[in-house]
Amino acid sequence: MTAHDHHDHDHDHDHEGSALPEIALRVKALESILVEKGYVDRAALDVLIETYETRIGPRNGARVVAKAWADPAYRDRLRADASAAIAELGFIGRQGEHMVAVENTPDTHNLVVCTLCSCYPWPVLGLPPVWYKSAPYRSRAVIDPRGVLADFGVALPPETKIRVWDSTAETRYLVIPMRPAGTEGWDEDALAGLVSRDSMIGADVAHAPGDAR
Q1: Is the CB of residue 158 less than 8 Å from the CB of residue 98?
Q2: Which residues are CB-contacts of 208 (< 8 A; sequence separation ≥ 6)?
Q3: Which NCBIfam families match (predicted)?
Q4: Which of 3, 47, 114, 125: disulfide with 167, CB 3.0–4.6 Å?
């Protein structure tokens, strides 16, 4: 069963639909000019974007999750006031002013989506992945979250409830994945290495020790 938390979207930016918004068209035009003149290598630019999407950006969120796993008092503060707890670690910014942390348990798995566009907590997760902004994910995450998770390779027990959180311009969400077994006594740096960007969106689970994903 799925519980979907609805929020009014009062966005201050263009919604993404089938047509690119004007700013995206301008960026693509500028990129094409720079590539044509030899100022920018498109392949190198793609690598740079991928690095910020999947490596550098999500490290902040991984540190937040690792600290929550290792420090019960911090986890309590994170769940009570995620914005303040995240700011304790110096991660602040316009795309993450009001944060809410939701914690996965054996009974409940949380999944984050923005049904109208692509609201996303940049200070802790970096750049949003392309799939997060896509229309199929935005619609299917609400209608068929278990199927979406299966597409990501996540198979949950039938009795596990999936709760879908709808981000808005005012509220962004961070999923605290369940801590993997076999990590007792690990320090925060080691724990952070098990936390992926997708697990903090809810589209994955934390890596198990020795998992080379």
Answers
A1: no
A2: 180, 181, 182, 194
A3: nitrile_alph (TIGR01323)
A4: 114
Examine the residue annotation and report whether 32 is marked as an active-site residue of this protein.
Answer: no
Residue-range domain boundaries for the chain: 22-53, 57-201
- The residue written with tokens 């918004």 in the block is 21
Of 117, 167, 196, 199, which residue is the catalytic one? 117
Class of domain 57-201: alpha beta
Contact in structure between 206 and 195 (CB atoms under 8 Å): yes
Of 119, 167, 196, 199, which one is the catalytic site residue?
A: 119
CA–CA dist 10, 79 (Å, integer): 24
For this structure, is 196 an active site residue? Answer: no
Spatial distance between the Cα atoms of 176 and 111, rounded to a whole number of angstroms: 11
User: Taking the model in full, what pTM does it have?
Assistant: 0.76
Q: What does DSSP assign to residue 37? A: T
Residue 117, annotated as binding a ligand: yes
Q: How far apart are CA 67 and CA 2, in angstroms?
A: 29
Strand intervals (E) in the chain? 2-5, 99-103, 108-113, 161-166, 172-176
- φ, ψ of residue 61 in degrees (nearest 5): -60, -40
Query: Tell me: the pLDDT tens digits for 111-142?
Result: 999 998 889 998 899 888 989 999 999 999 99
**What are 164-209's pLDDT values in tens digits?**
999 998 899 999 999 999 999 999 999 999 999 999 999 999 999 9
Query: Catalytic: 18?
Result: no
